[in-house]
Structure to design on (499 residues):
């Protein structure tokens, strides 16, 4: 049988990785054919042009799939002479055969067996697995558009840093991080987020997860109470659980966190909030609520952890100043990240701590985490100082704003009055509300079968009954595909609502 026929047959099977992209499905089909020896070692594959035409897919898709196969050693290609199945396969190829489903937040995991002999704390941390994802799918909430990142420019800046690197940049990171970066961040936060900050108060971390963990370590003891928003960012909850805190969920409404009498009867050491764009509902905390929360924290001598993870993306109205900027009591620890603005893998975030916490936090950050990556910090400092950061923010805000509008238009055009959208004023995702009888986890699973990665709103709640809905991200998806995937999504929603 010809290679194209073999691939056509495999790809024609409805259950052959239906949730993956065309490129990934082709890659899987070729690899499966090689591993089952339908395509024999040493044989030449048809040209990418011929395969694209036979399968009715874009040539670029075939080229990208072949590149991946070549990178993993399944095929080899020489310029001008075509692509051949490798004579020897990569080591242990079968171990990579499993394709994981896109993750559903907070799905209980069955994969962590007793055999690992984990500590009670370790087992608790892995009881819920977000899941290692195989690839990002359209509408994945929270993922930025990597194609906009100015890769060439970043490479040039990094190269320059390495060329001119003083030996100190090769050492462990300084306590608190690279000074010019801390200084650039302080300036940025003062100007754009009204944060009250001196350079001394800024500490570079390897992202929000580390910032949260450091705060939990330094400000709480096991058994202390932490207020978390309900619904809440699952990864923050995981950190607090790992520190053996008692989590006290506080309801969130359209104005942000809304503590009631029962909540006020507790004595939190920490209060974790996302005021600019509540994760996951997207609610923006009102000024009155911000003031009230600050007063509560002062009265209870609690620390507020303000996670300002995506405040740069506000599309309508003026951004509200940070909670930290309104704080007369010095009870707020502010944290930000470069994951959303630049790219998640950069793993650089920052903390702004009240003056009284500067010394202890710096010491702990250095002793417990032993930071590094000074060359990345130096490149980032240059990137900001040379004005590229401001330009990049403008560019992505515009791009995401346009995608957001296109997504909203598509959803409304498809569903008319039958759809309620919330949390779309800012951020990288919006929420499609679902009626309370609809199982949003099942809808998210169905959407995954159509190659769409959305998250079920109910899985972020502690209290029941939870609100039902879908978190739909619009930053990562290509603009040209929004209408297509938007229609697919509304078809899935419509059939679920009708049932
Ligand atoms: C609420 C919230 N905070 C922070 C982050 C980013 O965290 P990190 O800096 O660890 O990448 C995310 C990422 O999705 C998030 O949703």
């Amino acid at each position: 049988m010809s290679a194209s026929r073999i691939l056509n047959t495999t790809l024609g099977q409805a259950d052959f990785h239906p949730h993956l992209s065309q490129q990934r499905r082709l890659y899987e089909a070729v690899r499966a054919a090689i591993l089952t020896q339908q395509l024999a070692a040493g044989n030449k594959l048809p040209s990418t042009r011929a395969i694209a035409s036979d399968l009715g897919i874009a040539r670029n898709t075939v080229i990208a799939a072949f590149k991946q196969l070549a990178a993993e050693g399944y095929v080899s290609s020489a310029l001008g002479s075509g692509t051949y199945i490798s004579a020897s396969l990569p080591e242990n190829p079968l171990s990579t055969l499993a394709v994981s489903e896109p993750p559903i937040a907070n799905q209980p995991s069955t994969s962590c067996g007793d055999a690992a002999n984990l500590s009670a704390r370790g087992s608790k941390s892995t009881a819920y697995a977000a899941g290692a994802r195989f690839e990002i799918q359209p509408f994945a909430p929270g993922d930025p558009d990597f194609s906009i990142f100015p890769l060439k420019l970043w490479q040039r800046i990094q190269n320059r840093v390495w060329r001119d690197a003083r030996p100190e940049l090769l050492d462990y990171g300084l306590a608190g991080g690279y000074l010019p970066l801390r200084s650039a961040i302080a300036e940025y936060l003062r100007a754009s987020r009204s944060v009250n900050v001196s350079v001394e108060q800024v500490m570079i971390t390897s992202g929000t997860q580390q910032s949260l963990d450091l705060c939990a370590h330094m400000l709480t003891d096991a058994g202390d109470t932490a207020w978390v928003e309900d619904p809440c960012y699952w990864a923050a909850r995981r950190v607090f659980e790992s520190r053996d805190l008692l989590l006290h969920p506080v309801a969130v409404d359209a104005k942000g966190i809304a503590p009631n009498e029962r909540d006020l009867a507790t004595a939190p050491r920490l209060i974790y909030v996302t005021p600019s764009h509540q994760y996951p509902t997207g609610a923006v905390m009102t000024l009155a609520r911000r003031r009230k929360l600050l007063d509560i924290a002062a009265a209870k001598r609690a620390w507020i952890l303000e996670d300002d993870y995506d405040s740069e993306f506000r599309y309508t109205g003026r951004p509200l100043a940070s909670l930290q900027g309104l704080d007369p009591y010095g009870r707020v620890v502010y944290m930000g990240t470069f994951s959303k603005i630049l790219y998640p893998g950069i793993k650089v975030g920052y903390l702004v701590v009240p003056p009284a916490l500067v010394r202890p936090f710096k010491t702990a950050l250095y002793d417990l985490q032993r930071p590094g990556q000074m060359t990345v910090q130096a490149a980032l400092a240059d990137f900001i100082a040379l004005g590229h950061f401001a330009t990049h923010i403008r560019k992505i805000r515009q791009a995401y704003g346009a995608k957001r509008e296109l997504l909203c238009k598509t959803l409304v055009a498809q569903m008319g009055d039958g759809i309620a959208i919330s949390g779309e004023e800012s951020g990288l995702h919006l929420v499609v509300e679902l009626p309370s009888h609809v199982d949003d986890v099942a809808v998210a699973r169905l959407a995954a079968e159509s190659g769409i990665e959305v998250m079920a709103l109910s899985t972020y709640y502690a209290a029941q009954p939870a609100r039902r809905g879908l978190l739909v991200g619009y930053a990562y998806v290509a603009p040209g595909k929004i209408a297509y995937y938007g229609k697919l999504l509304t078809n899935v929603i419509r059939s679920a609502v009708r049932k």
